[in-house]
Amino acid sequence: MEIKQNVALKPYNTFGVKARAKQFAEVSEVSEILELLNIQQPELILGGGSNILFRKNIDGLVVKNNLKGKEVINEDDQSVEVRFGAGENWHECVLWCIEKGYGGIENLSLIPGTMGAAPMQNIGAYGVELKDVFVSLEAIDLEEKVAHTFAHTECEFGYRESVFKTTLKGQYFITSVTLRLTKTNHQLNTEYGAIQQTLEKMNVQNLDIKSISDAVIQIRQSKLPDPADLGNAGSFFKNPVLLKSQFEVLKALHPDMISYDLPDDYVKIPAGWLIEQCGWKGKQIGNTGTYKSQALVIVNHGRARGDEIWDLAHQIQDTVHAKFKILLTPEVNVL
Predict the structure, then answer these.
(1) Number of domains comprising the chain
(2) Which of 101, 114, 137 is nearest to 65 (CA)?
(3) pLDDT class for 179, splitting at 50, 70, 90?
(4) What domain range is 272 assigned to?
């Protein structure tokens, strides 16, 4: 393990924003993390850099999580528990599971980022969330330098939230994540979004976890830009969740408003729809803008600074709030 000085962070964030780290190190073993902590505390831990916006240089140590590995730790005829290294690429893990016949995360195909970031964000898409298959995670307390296992309840999962984004933010280094997946009788979720229509276009005769994954990949590729071609961090804002009573008031004013029912009398409204109704879809301002096929995605047209992107995000928030009285909350971590 080497601690490098004055390292460019542009290759380590999917927005492709220029920033620098005063110090930078990559770790591939738990022992290297402990070794590093005996030297100094990290200011930032990086996974895939797919959910971050740099507005400044990092005047401290940035640590890139490269912990790898996939290990079956428990199984029976119906299910399997797999422990994944936190530095594993999320989508590659999904594809590996599908190849093994393990179901439960096929709807989460092509989500960028690493396994370790998945529970922090409680990633979700097309009717499925990480918490639905989560068992536990292992993490190192950065202050005490000891390992701790977090069970499902300890993670306090919410909509794109967990305890690691709230009360324990910046206090732990996640080293592995264990998921419980199905081996038989997979629960195939095709009701959300355009999955069913896409499966019909694909002429799928025998529905299985792979065909659902293929459909999700096709949908996401049609709506979202490849960060290698156009810098972005995926969905910039969370989909707002309202009480059904609040939604009914809005629906009366905007009859064509799209929504999805949630438990406990809540309703989710697609943030992309709200932004599009305000005229932002495909709009470019200077070096930044929104994607032509999905207004929820803010993009870097090549030379955008973090502050430019953040300014655009504020403009979008202001116009959506003025029209719908809904304040969009960023899903991206802004530094």
Answers:
(1) 3
(2) 114
(3) very high
(4) 231-334
Find the catalytic residue in 83, 160, 180, 305.
Answer: 160
Of 125, 118, 115, residue with least CA distance to 224: 125
H/E stretch holding 80: strand 79-85
109 is catalytic: no
User: Which residues partner with 324 through β-bridges?
Assistant: none
Assess whether pLDDT exceeds 80 at residue 193.
no
* In contact, 119 and 134? CB cutoff 8 Å: yes
The one catalytic residue in 50, 176, 235, 308 is: 235
Examine the domain organization and report whether 56 and 81 are in the same domain: no
pTM metric for this prediction? 0.89
Q: 99 catalytic, yes or no?
A: no
What residues have CB less than 8 Å from 325, skipping those under 6 apart? Answer: 250
Residue range 224-263, pLDDT digits in tens: 899 989 999 999 999 999 999 999 999 999 999 999 888 8
Residue 218 lies in a domain: no
Residue 272 lies in a domain: yes
Reported as a single tens digit per residue, the pLDDT across 287-315 is 999 999 999 999 999 899 999 999 999 99
Helix 90-100 with 209-223: angle, nearest 10 deg: 150
- What's the CA dihedral at 213, 83, 332, 323 to 10 degrees? 50
The token pair that represents 262 in the structure block: 């949630």
Range 125-136 average pLDDT: 95
Residue 303 lies in a domain: yes
Residue 120 domain-assigned (yes or no): yes
How far is Cα 70 from Cα 88, in angstroms, rounded to an integer?
9
Q: How would residue 159 be classed by pLDDT, with cut points 50, 70 and 90?
A: confident
pLDDT at 135: 98
